[in-house]
Amino acid sequence: MPPGSTAERVAPMERPLTDPGHAVELDEVAVRFRTKRKDVTALQDVTLRVRPGEFVAIVGPSGCGKSTLLKLASGLLAPSSGTARLLGEEVTAPRPDVGYVFQKAALLEWRSARKNILLQAEMRRMPARQARERADELIAMTGLTGFEDAYPHELSGGMQQRVALCRALLHRPPVLLMDEPFGALDALTREQMNVELRRIWQETGTTVLLVTHSIAEAVYLADRVVMMTARPGTVAGVIEIGLPADRDYGTTMAEPEFARATRHIRDHLGAAVAAD
Predict the structure, then answer these.
(1) Residue 232: is the preceding peptide bond cis (ω within 30°)?
(2) Total structural domains within the chain
(3) Separation between Cα atoms, residue 94 and residue 72, nearest integer Å
(4) Adjacent-strand bridge partners of 28
(5) pLDDT digit string (tens) for 164-192?
(6) pLDDT, tens digit, for every residue of 189-212?
(7) Residue 4 domain-assigned?
(8) Which of these three, 172, 194, 219, is where a domain ends?
(9) Which of 151, 172, 193 is the endpoint of a domain?
(10) pLDDT tens sequence across 221-250
(11) Residues 206, 265: one domain?
(12) 226: which DSSP letter?
């Protein structure tokens, strides 16, 4: 194997130390719940840390607990054991200082794009003028200028997700959690959204934790990719993506590093599932 290759940089996540400099930190976390038929362990001994300003993608088989990790980081779900920390503080309740983008845009049909974005401000009781100025800034940043007054049914799927992204970023959250946000889009629109998200992340400096089923998407977007095992989900390994910070979509796809990274993640996940 050539020195410095992608495969050499794959290793299990080390146990994190308590460090207020970490944006997201999960320490030996497990999640168990009971169904009518049996007890289920969704996550087991998950250890993960994300540095401020970092873009980390999580990939793994369906049902391995990827979305559950985001709920732990945001405080929407409490761990059965272990500890979740956000910005150095233990997460014990839903956190207002995160942005969350879901699989569906979940826009209110009777509100325009701008008013859907400003819904965040109303819920958080942000000063009206400050919220409007921030909304205008995000509308311009995401290429929605000219569609501010359009209603959801007048917007394409990609535009609806841009509105959802603006809404999540309105309060300038230090951490943005994204749960398969582009999975329902067609291939070309998804590529465009990948490019836009990468650019917006570079402009805002927000820490991003992204769940995706697309290995190519994970490698293009992320600084690091976390690989999960099948249920009960745990961290099988993490890979550093050695691509340049400025990533043109077409050029990046042709990079040898992109091919090595995607191949290794695919092989690693296949081996983890086979061993389960």
Answers:
(1) yes
(2) 2
(3) 9
(4) none
(5) 999 999 999 999 999 999 988 899 999 99
(6) 999 999 999 999 999 999 999 999
(7) no
(8) 172
(9) 172
(10) 999 999 999 988 899 999 999 999 889 898
(11) yes
(12) E
